[in-house]
Write a structure and sequence with these properties.
Blueprint: E1 2-10, E2 13-22, H1 24-27, E3 36-39, H2 47-55, E4 63-67, E5 87-91, H3 99-104, E6 107-109, H4 117-122, E7 130-135, E8 143-145, H5 153-159, E9 162-167, E10 175-176, E11 179-181, E12 187-190, H6 205-215, E13 223-226, H7 230-237, E14 246-247, E15 251-252, H8 257-261, E16 277-279, E17 281-282, H9 286-292, E18 298-300, H10 303-306, H11 309-312, E19 318-323, E20 326-328, E21 333-334, E22 337-338, E23 341-342, H12 349-358, E24 363-367, E25 379-380, E26 398-401, E27 404-407, H13 413-422, H14 426-440, H15 442-445
Parallel strand pairs: 2-12, 3-4, 3-7, 4-5, 5-6, 7-9, 9-12, 10-18, 13-14, 13-19, 15-17, 16-18, 19-24, 20-25, 24-26
Antiparallel strand pairs: 1-2, 8-11, 20-21, 22-23, 26-27
Length: 448
């Protein structure tokens, strides 16, 4: 075992802490049958702890494991049919390494707005017994940083009876909420695993066209919430001629670094953390993680703060840019499932769409290619059976495809249908028009 003596000033008294680094299997022995565990996510899932916990499967029964957004190339080891008596995998937002388990019925999901998850923990509606964290090494004062993932991990650890930490030399130290003192950690093990890197996608021609349509609607001085993928990066690329942009988002990615380094994102006009780029989680490259290490220009906060619509709305010209699986002719937006198959979660889309809509000069965008890779239209007469509505038709504002951008807010249903058909792929417009005539009758015909 590795012993670390840490001396710190804590609660105005000089106290000596002797922290014992246990083996992973020893650390997870604190988990009991019937416990509920909240697991840190983003690109820092504490896999060392989860692998060790899985080794104890024969000793445990009915342990619930709650995950949020996360990325890891390794399948969740506990989410197997033969282990279902021992572990129950539950998701707030389905991580990529639990999608197979979701399809097989081994895992399940709890539908909720991401910004409200900390309330579920803090109110006791979802009791938390244990938190699994992936943290930095303690500093000279005995504090470890959650680094790139506050999101649901911060409130999970706050409410947990027992905190178990994987101490990782690769975890950067960030400013804001994600920090915990060693005295609050019941068991620590070494887990020096490199953080998962997410490549920055190069936007396709279609994504570039969509990005340009959206960027043309974004004014100087706007505050951005921007997601992950080709379209968000296309939007970012198209903003290089803008000035005095701000960043108040859920996920910070490599895509924003060029705008920050060139002073385009300077956060000078924001009301919430002016001068700082604010997020709740980070996913990107080793360069991004190292760039953020001990960098006071970035602040990482609990998702209850970053995703609170009342905080988002305080920023002038808040811009919410999100994606969708499909949009129906009334403006209903499905973003978490393909038919009945859940592939992600509500996440922060609703939080930011609502907050931006309340912001002075704010705008909300849904961006999607007009067709899937299989040649199916993403603008549809009706959502697929079982599809979930993440953003309602009442909240829909701008919808953008490679064929244009339309504004739906305050439009009657028939006019919405006409607008959406105009940005659908030309090959399906006639079919969609027939569906609109059938649904809206003479009200749609009079618009032609």
């Amino acid at each position: 075992m590795y012993i670390s003596n840490i001396t710190t000033t804590f609660a105005a008294n000089l106290i000596h802490y002797t922290m014992q680094y246990l083996s992973p299997i020893e650390a997870v022995r604190l988990v009991k049958s019937g416990d509920t565990i909240v697991v840190q996510g983003s690109t820092s899932i504490p896999m060392v702890l989860l692998r060790a916990l899985t080794e104890r499967a024969s000793e445990l029964r009915d342990v619930k494991i709650i995950s949020g957004f996360g990325i890891h190339p390794e399948e969740a080891p506990y989410a197997k049919k033969e282990l279902m008596d021992s572990f129950r995998a539950l998701n707030i937002f389905v991580p990529n390494n639990l999608r197979r388990a979701m399809r097989e019925g081994v895992a399940d999901t709890i539908p909720c707005f991401l910004g409200e998850v900390p309330f579920l923990f803090r109110s006791g509606q979802v009791p938390v017994d244990v938190a699994f964290l992936n943290v930095s090494e303690p500093d000279e004062n005995g504090y470890c940083s959650y680094g790139i993932s506050a999101d649901i991990a911060f409130s999970g650890a706050e409410c947990a009876k027992t905190v178990i930490a994987q101490v990782n030399k690769y975890m950067p130290r960030t400013f804001g909420d994600p920090v915990i003192h060693v005295s609050q950690i019941a068991a620590m093990c070494r887990g020096d695993e490199s953080l998962i890197e997410v490549p920055t996608p190069v936007p396709s021609e279609i994504e570039t066209r969509i990005g340009n349509f959206i960027a043309n609607e974004i004014p100087d001085g706007a505050t951005l919430q921007i997601g992950v993928g080709g379209i968000p990066n296309a939007v970012i690329n198209a903003l290089r001629g803008h000035q005095h942009l701000g960043l108040h988002t859920e996920a910070i990615t490599d895509g924003v670094l060029p705008l920050i380094e060139k002073g385009i994102i300077d956060n000078s006009l924001k009301k919430i953390y002016p001068g700082k780029s604010l997020g709740s989680l980070v996913l990107g490259s080793k360069h991004l993680y190292e760039y953020m290490d001990n960098n006071p220009d970035f602040v990482i906060r609990d998702v209850a703060f970053t995703n609170d619509p009342q905080n988002i709305r305080q920023n002038p010209k808040a811009m919410a840019i999100n994606s969708a699986v499909e949009v129906d002719l009334t403006g209903q937006i499905c973003a978490d499932s393909i038919g009945e198959t859940i592939i992600s979660g509500v996440g922060g889309q609703h939080d930011f769409m609502y907050g931006a809509a309340l912001s002075e000069g704010g705008k909300c965008f849904i961006a999607l290619p007009s067709m899937t890779s299989k040649g199916q239209s993403k603008i549809v007469a009706n959502l697929a059976p079982g599809a979930g509505v993440v953003t309602t038709r009442f909240q829909a504002q701008y919808i953008a495809t490679e064929h244009g951008i339309v504004y739906l807010r305050n439009l009657p249903l028939a006019e919405r249908a006409k607008a959406l058909i105009s940005i659908a792929d030309p090959s399906v417009r006639e079919e969609l028009e027939r569906a609109a005539v059938k649904r809206f009758g003479i009200g749609f015909l009079r618009l032609k």
